[in-house]
């Protein structure tokens, strides 16, 4: 499995937000998508999800473009959005059932996986509740359970740590590691650099809609010509650079 974003220029209107963006995520790898507010992280993710169309460039998941087969393309991807998307008229149980239908999952084998995740995130007693009335963190957990009960090949998580308590962050990182070990590819956008540094194998640093640098922390340190730095130091240095 490989996600390939190749020379993508795109955004919301005539003036592009993303400019010639190229990076890849391989199977069994966690890649951190890092950048300041407005750098283009969510815009990149919207292009991968097919919510926006590139003006130029190409995105493939396992060699497949969205235009070739929309359903097959989307079923390979599980997505945790930045803000929870919940249906006011559906219970938690119905949200899970709907996700199983959308991903063509066998309920018999998927419900035990869902149950395990629900217990982990302390939502197992709330199946008949309406998530629209949940707390911010609980809503986020519903999105996480829906995404991680699938057997997607690519997981895309947009700012997953916002609103989660430390225990939930710990549990989410453990789930992400388990999916990685099982061979999934994971793209995770975050501002919580300590979590990114701890869990990601490689980083893509976005600045003003361009990939400023990418690689392992060691490679980035070498590229930025800094010694003994953390991801946070690189981030600060990048943020001081003018748009190119
Ligand atoms: P953050 O860390 O704040 O979530 P981000 O890196 O995810 O930032 P994006 O949301 O991708 O940033 O925004 C990149 C640029 O695209 C910004 O200049 C923003 O104003 C613009 N943008 C985002 N959403 C829209 C929209 N719906 N219509 C027009 N422009 C938008």
From TrEMBL:
<dbReference type="Pfam" id="PF00005">
    <property type="entry name" value="ABC_tran"/>
</dbReference>
<dbReference type="GO" id="GO:0016887">
    <property type="term" value="F:ATP hydrolysis activity"/>
</dbReference>
<dbReference type="InterPro" id="IPR003593">
    <property type="entry name" value="AAA+_ATPase"/>
</dbReference>
<dbReference type="GO" id="GO:0005524">
    <property type="term" value="F:ATP binding"/>
</dbReference>
<dbReference type="InterPro" id="IPR003439">
    <property type="entry name" value="ABC_transporter-like_ATP-bd"/>
</dbReference>
<dbReference type="InterPro" id="IPR027417">
    <property type="entry name" value="P-loop_NTPase"/>
</dbReference>
<dbReference type="InterPro" id="IPR017871">
    <property type="entry name" value="ABC_transporter-like_CS"/>
</dbReference>
<protein>
    <submittedName>
        <fullName>ABC transporter ATP-binding protein</fullName>
    </submittedName>
</protein>
<keyword id="KW-0813">Transport</keyword>
<dbReference type="InterPro" id="IPR051782">
    <property type="entry name" value="ABC_Transporter_VariousFunc"/>
</dbReference>
<keyword id="KW-0067">ATP-binding</keyword>
<feature type="domain" description="ABC transporter">
    <location>
        <begin position="3"/>
        <end position="233"/>
    </location>
</feature>
<keyword id="KW-0547">Nucleotide-binding</keyword>
